[in-house]
Write a structure and sequence with these properties.
The protein is α/β, with parallel strands linked by helices. It contains 6 helices and 7 strands, in the order βαβααβαβββαβα. The structure holds flavin mononucleotide.
């Protein structure tokens, strides 16, 4: 069984989402001792941007690619392969500027591949990446609940839920620390609550 652990916070040891995602991984590994963990820190090692240059490099004969082009294609393919191989995916997903970190978006851009994670037909869109357990460790400075006046600008959790539903994973589990910029006491309470919740995610999974 494979677990893919992604972090994307730029705040290093001060990050809330990193602590929450780590607590979830520790709990899942404890409940599934044989699980193989693959870790990607998108702040330390961002995936290459999806770009015209990357698309053009894919059209070249592999022997004609520059070292940089070959490296970027290898990295982009590894992102997709790791995701497809994972039974469980845990993503540290902070809210930055009402959305997600740009590094997390770059990573996602390598997952949205027709024929691999979704397909279109006359019957509509079909997600092809189902069967995974997907957990978001979310953190936000403010409050964006459904009753909040800020709900309409919450493009972080809603975007991630929509994306993973599109590729066939409708039941995303979210552990959330909200309002962490409302003061140190509130931050500690939100962090402790989310870490405790994440520590309860360790149910055993059946081997695929
Ligand atoms: C670059 C940046 C942008 C942010 N933008 C928002 C925002 O739009 N809304 C919000 O509520 N909090 C915002 N925050 C606060 C973060 O959501 C909060 O600090 C959260 O804990 C970030 O997760 P992390 O600690 O894992 O990095 C921002 C923080 C940073 C560093």
């Amino acid at each position: 069984m494979n677990l893919l652990h992604i972090d994307s916070s730029i705040l290093g040891d001060h990050s809330v989402s990193r602590k929450v995602s780590a607590a979830a991984v520790v709990a899942i590994v404890a409940a599934n001792p044989g699980v193989k963990v693959t870790y990607r820190d998108l702040d330390a090692a961002p995936a290459p941007h999806q770009s015209g240059a990357l698309l053009a490099a894919r059209l070249l004969d592999p022997g004609a690619r520059s070292a940089d082009q070959a490296r970027d294609i290898t990295e982009a393919d590894a992102v997709l392969d790791e995701f497809l191989a994972a039974d469980i995916v845990v993503i540290g997903a902070p809210m930055y500027n009402f959305g997600i970190p740009s590094t997390l978006k770059s990573w996602i851009d390598h997952l949205a591949i027709a024929g691999k994670t979704f397909s279109y037909s006359e019957a509509g869109v079909q997600g092809l990446a189902g069967g995974k357990r997907l957990i978001l460790a979310s953190s936000r400075g403010g409050f964006y609940g459904a009753d909040s006046p800020m709900a309409a600008v919450q493009h972080q959790e809603s975007y991630l839920r929509d994306f993973f539903r599109f590729i066939g994973i409708p039941d995303v589990e979210v552990v959330s620390a909200e309002g962490v910029n409302y003061g140190p006491d509130h931050k500690q309470k939100a962090l402790d609550g989310a870490v405790a919740e994440a520590a309860n995610l360790g149910r055993a999974l059946q081997a695929a």
